[in-house]
Automatic annotation (TrEMBL):
Protein's UniProt keywords contain Flavoprotein: yes
NADPH-dependent FMN reductase-like domain location: 5-112
Top-level taxon of the source organism: Bacteria
The UniProt record lists the keyword ATP-binding: no
Source organism: Dethiosulfatibacter aminovorans DSM 17477
One Pfam family cited in the UniProt record for this chain: FMN_red
Entry protein name: NADPH-dependent FMN reductase
UniProt GO molecular function: oxidoreductase activity
Membrane-spanning intervals of the chain: none
Keywords of this entry: Flavoprotein, FMN
PANTHER family: IRON-SULFUR FLAVOPROTEIN, NAD(P)H-DEPENDENT FMN-CONTAINING OXIDOREDUCTASE YWQN-RELATED
């Protein structure tokens, strides 16, 4: 029996390069005996973080009532993650950033309350899939890696692979 993963698709566009590369990666994982649940952030109503501090005063709660409540439970359920995003200005998409900002609650759980969101002590595995339209250049994927490393740390997840794809504007 393989591992269980959640694949987070953070592109605004359906069936374009980021999703096609993610689907291929998922297919290979499943062929190797792993289980993968794929979610597309564009299918969820996710409001912006209000920076109100509510999560800092209320363990595991966010005052914004939207689809993040469903996504928080998915984050709790999994130890292994695949995060796929197009690269916009050397970082993740705005859709990914809104989702990550709303995970401030996870940070508060781990560092303010000293009781991580996940019940598991086991270190999880994180895989980043970054897709850029431009030709490859220095630090093109650095912003994505920095922000996703911070996001994953809140879930006790270590980045084990960063798949970098570029030049999709020319395909």
């Amino acid at each position: 029996m393989g591992d269980k993963y959640i694949a987070i698709m953070a592109s605004h566009r359906k069936n374009k390069f980021t999703e096609k590369y993610l689907d291929k990666y998922i297919e290979e994982l499943v062929e190797d005996g792993n289980e993968v649940e794929k979610i597309s952030l564009r299918d969820y109503d996710i409001g912006i973080c209000k920076a109100c501090g509510y999560c800092g005063r209320n363990y595991g709660k966010c005052c914004v009532e939207d689809d993040m409540q469903v996504l928080y439970e998915k984050l709790r359920k999994y130890r292994n993650f695949i995060f796929a995003s197009p690269v916009y200005f050397n970082t993740v998409s705005s859709l990914a950033k809104i989702f990550i900002d709303r995970c401030q609650m996870l940070f508060e759980c781990k560092y303010n309350y000293r009781k991580p969101w996940s019940d598991s002590e086991e270190k999880g595995r994180g895989i980043i899939l970054s897709v850029a339209g431009a030709c490859e250049y220095e630090n093109q994927f650095k912003g994505s890696e920095i922000i996703l490393d911070a996001f994953f740390k809140n879930l006790n997840v270590e980045i084990v692979e960063h798949i970098k794809i570029c030049e999709t504007d020319f395909k």
